[in-house]
Amino acid sequence: MKHFPLLVFILTLTLAGCAPATLASPSPAPVSSTSTLLSPTTSPSATDTPIPDTAIPDTETPVPTATLAPDAWMQMPAIPSVSDTVRTIYSRGQELGRDPRRFSKAGDCESTTGWYLAEFDRKPVTYRLGEQYEYLQTTIDYYAGSFLRESVAVRRGANTSSLLTSLWADPTQCEAGESMLACEYRLHNPSVALIAVGSNDVFGVDDFEGQMRAIIEFTISQGIVPVLSTKADNAEGDHSINAILARLAYEYDIPLWNFWLVVQPLPNHGLQADGVHLTFGGNIFDDPFRMEKAWPWRNLTALQVLDALRLALEK
Question: Counting C-beta atoms within 10 Å of the first and last residue's C-beta, which end of the chain has fewer, N or C?
Fold first, then answer.
C-alpha cells in the first residue's frame, strides 16, 4: 500500500485547510416528500440520474471500465441515484453482517462530528427541516446513533494516505497495524461510508488517484457502500481532485455526492475568505438567511444522499 513521502505527510499535519474559523452557534430549532433542494437564490436541483491488508479475500471488487470527460463532473447531480452495483455491494455486506442502519464518516475536519450531521442525534432537537424537508425525518430516525458518533476515521488534517495507514489510527481503539478506515469499519460495522477527503491532498495530487482507488476497493471488499464527495474548494488550482473523484465514482459505479455543485450559487461559493473553509450557519432549512451559508447545505444534502440510499437499499 503506497503512502505519501514523509515530508508531505508532515506537511498535512500542519495544513491549515481543515481548522474551523470562528463558528457561530446554530440556533435551536426539527423536519418532507420531494428530492429537490431548497434554493438560497438559484440553488441547483438534486436530479435522479443513474450514474487491503484486511480485505475479505473471496469478495470480488468491480473492475472499473467506464470513462468520463474531464469537466463532466461539474454537471453531475448533487444527489446520485443508486445503481445495481451499489445494490450488489450492499447485499454482500448484509451477508457479512453489516448493520443496515449504520453509516460511518471518513475524512478531514469537514467530517468532524462537532458540526457535521451531529445535530440529528442531539436532544433536545436543534435542527428544523421545515415542511419541504419533513420527509427526511424518516432517514434521521433510521440512522439514529450514527450522526453523533465520533468516527475514528475522521481527523483534522487527514488525507487519503491518512485513512490507509495505522500511523493515524487511535491506539486506544484500534488494533496494532490497523488503518483508520479498517478500524472504523470494525468498530462501527456500517453498511455505508461517507468519504470526504481531498482538501489536504493538494501536496500530493499525483498520488491522490491511487490512494482513492485503495480506499474505494477496500471499502467495497468489506461489503460497505462508499459514497464519494466532491469538495467545495479548489486549493489545487485546477479542480483536478474533484475531477478524479467523479471519474472514480463513475468507473466503479458508486455514488458521488457532488457537494461542489450545491455551493456554487452561494455567496463566495460557500467559502470563507481563505477559500477553503465553509461558511457556517445553523441547520434551520426553512430559513433563507441561514441557507446562504454552506454548512446547512452540507448537512441537508448529506441527509438527502442517505435518504436516497435508504429508499433504494432497504427494499
Answer: C
Give the pTM: 0.80
Is it the case that residue 5 has pLDDT exceeding 80? Answer: no
Please identify which residue in the block is written with the cell numbers 443513474.
50
Q: How confident is the model at residue 224 (pLDDT cuts 50, 70, 90)?
A: very high
Residue 15 lies in a domain: no
Domain span at residue 242 reads 67-313
Map residue 151 onto helix, strand or coil.
coil
Domain count, the chain: 1
Query: What's the grid cell of residue 159?
Result: 488525507
Q: Contacts by 38-42 with C-beta closer than 8 Å and gap 24+?
A: 38/130, 38/132, 38/133, 38/285, 38/286, 38/291, 38/300, 39/265, 40/265, 40/266, 40/288, 40/291, 40/292, 40/297, 41/265, 41/266, 41/292, 42/265
Q: Map residue 257 onto helix, strand or coil.
A: strand
* Tens digit of each residue's pLDDT (9 = 90 or more) over 14-59: 333 454 333 333 333 333 333 334 333 333 333 333 323 333 333 3
Tell whether 160 is covered by a domain.
yes
Mention every residue, 6+ apart, whose C-beta is less than 8 A from residue 9.
3, 161, 167
Domain-located, residue 247: yes
Assign residue 215 the CATH number of its domain: 3.40.50.1110
Neighbours of 52 (CB within 10 A): 18
On whether the CB atoms of residues 262 and 37 are closer than 8 A, the answer is yes
Residue 250 in domain: yes
457532488: which residue's cell? 258
